[in-house]
Inverse folding.
C-alpha cells in the first residue's frame, strides 16, 4: 500500500530558493558552455588521431613469431589471447586457469520509490504531494530500510550475510609470441559461467553462521535447515532459491576464458603500448574475434561521432536548464497569482529554450572556427538566422500565443 506525504512551501521560502537557483543556474550554464567547447575539440582531435593511425597501421601477419622489423609500428593482428595463470577466490575456495575471475553479489531487499506532484496555490504557496511505494527486488547493495518514509516498512530489511564483489585478472596474458598490457587484457570479454565445486565442510560452516543470523532476526532458536544452496555458478543464501525472501543473498561467479581477439596497438618489444598521435591523443583497442583494420577504425569513428552528439545534446539541455534556473526568479515572484505565473513561466521557458539553442550553436560554431573554420562559418550563419527570426518574428508570435492563453482561461 502506498504512503503519502504532503509538504507546503511558503512564498517567501520559494523566492529565497529561487535566488539560490540563480547561482546554481549560472554555474550550470558556464559548465555546459565549457562542455560544448571541449566536446567539439575532443571530437576533432579524436577524428584526426584515428585518421593518422589508420594511415600508418600495418598488418602483423604472424603474431606467433616475433618480428623485430615491426618494433615501434602500429599493427593490426589477430591471435588467441590465453594465459597459464591460476586465479583463486580464497573466500569460496574455488579457482580456475582463466584471464579473469569475477564475483557478483545481489541482495533481496525491500526498496522505496517516490513520485512527487506539486501544485501552486493562490498567495504563492506550493503544496507538494509525494507518494512512496515499496516492493521487493534484487539489488547490488543492502538497503537501509530504517530511513524509509513509511513506518510500516522501516527496519524490515536485513541480510543473511554480506559479501564483497571482486574482479581478479591474470597478470600474464599471451598473444601469440607477445604479451598483452593491462589495458588490453581488461578489454577481453569472453565470459563464461563457472561450474562451482565447493567443499562440503565449508558449506556446513556457512550454514551454521547463516542459521544464527536467521535466528537473531526471527527471535527463535537456530535450526538445522539448509540455507546454503550451490547450483551451477551460484551460491544462494536462503531457504528456497525459487522463492526468495527478504534477506536472501545470491553470489554468482564468472570467468573470462581464452579467446581469439584482434588488436590495434603499437609494438613495444615483447608487448604493446598505446599509439601516440601528433596531436597527443593516444589509441589502442582490442575487439573480440577476427576483424580487419578497416572494420575497427570504422567502428571507432562511429563511436566518436555517437559521443559527439550525446555530449552535444547534454550540453544544450544543460545550457537551457541553467538559463531557466537563472530567470526562474521572475516566474516565482508571480506565484502569488498562479494564472499569471503560468503565462510568464511559459514565456520564460520558450525564451530560454530558444536562447539556449542559439547560444549552443554559437559556441559550437566558435569551436569549429578554431578547429575547422569552414564548418564554423556555416554554423554561425545558422545561429545568426535564428537570432533574426526570434528577434523580428518571435515578438508578435509570443503576443498571439499569450492572448490565446488568456482567452482559453477566460472561457474556462
Amino acid at each position: 500500500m502506498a504512503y503519502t506525504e504532503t509538504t507546503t512551501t511558503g512564498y517567501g521560502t520559494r523566492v529565497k530558493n529561487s535566488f539560490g537557483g540563480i547561482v546554481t543556474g549560472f554555474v550550470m550554464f558556464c559548465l555546459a558552455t565549457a562542455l560544448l567547447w571541449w566536446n567539439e575539440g575532443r571530437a576533432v582531435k579524436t577524428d584526426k588521431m584515428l585518421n593518422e593511425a589508420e594511415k600508418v597501421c600495418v598488418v602483423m601477419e604472424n603474431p606467433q613469431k616475433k618480428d623485430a622489423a615491426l618494433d615501434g609500428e602500429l599493427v593490426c593482428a589477430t591471435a588467441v589471447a590465453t594465459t597459464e595463470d591460476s586465479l583463486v577466490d580464497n573466500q569460496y575456495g574455488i579457482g580456475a586457469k582463466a584471464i579473469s575471475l569475477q564475483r557478483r553479489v545481489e541482495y533481496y531487499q525491500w526498496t522505496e520509490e517516490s513520485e512527487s506532484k506539486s501544485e501552486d496555490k493562490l498567495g504563492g504557496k506550493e503544496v507538494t504531494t509525494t507518494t512512496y511505494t515499496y516492493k521487493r527486488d534484487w539489488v547490488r547493495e543492502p538497503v537501509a530500510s530504517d530511513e524509509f518514509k513509511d513506518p510500516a516498512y522501516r527496519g524490515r530489511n536485513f541480510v543473511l550475510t554480506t559479501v564483497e564483489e571482486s574482479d581478479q585478472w591474470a597478470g600474464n596474458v599471451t598473444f601469440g609470441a607477445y604479451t598483452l598490457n593491462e589495458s588490453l587484457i581488461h578489454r577481453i570479454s569472453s565470459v563464461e559461467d563457472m561450474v562451482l565445486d565447493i567443499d562440503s565442510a565449508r558449506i556446513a560452516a556457512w550454514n551454521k553462521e547463516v542459521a544464527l543470523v536467521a535466528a537473531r532476526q526471527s527471535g527463535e532458536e537456530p535450526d538445522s535447515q539448509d540455507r546454503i544452496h550451490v547450483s551451477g555458478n551460484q551460491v544462494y543464501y536462503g531457504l528456497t532459491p525459487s522463492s526468495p525472501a527478504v534477506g536472501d543473498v545470491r553470489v554468482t561467479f564468472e570467468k573470462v576464458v581464452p579467446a581469439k581477439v584482434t588488436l590495434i596497438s603499437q609494438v613495444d618489444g615483447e608487448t604493446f603500448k598505446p599509439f601516440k598521435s601528433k596531436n597527443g591523443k593516444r589509441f589502442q583497442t582490442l575487439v573480440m574475434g577476427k576483424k580487419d583494420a578497416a572494420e575497427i577504425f570504422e567502428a571507432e569513428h562511429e563511436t566518436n561521432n555517437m559521443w559527439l552528439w550525446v555530449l552535444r545534446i547534454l550540453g544544450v539541455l544543460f545550457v537551457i536548464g541553467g538559463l531557466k534556473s537563472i530567470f526562474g526568479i521572475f516566474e516565482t515572484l508571480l506565484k502569488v497569482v498562479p494564472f499569471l505565473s503560468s503565462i510568464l513561466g511559459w514565456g520564460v521557458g520558450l525564451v530560454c529554450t530558444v536562447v539556449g539553442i542559439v547560444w549552443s550553436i554559437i559556441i559550437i560554431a566558435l569551436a569549429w572556427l578554431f578547429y575547422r573554420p569552414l564548418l564554423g562559418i556555416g554554423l554561425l550563419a545558422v545561429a545568426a538566422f535564428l537570432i533574426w527570426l526570434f528577434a523580428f518574428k518571435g515578438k508578435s508570435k509570443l503576443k498571439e500565443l499569450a492572448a490565446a492563453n488568456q482567452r482559453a482561461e477566460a472561457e474556462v
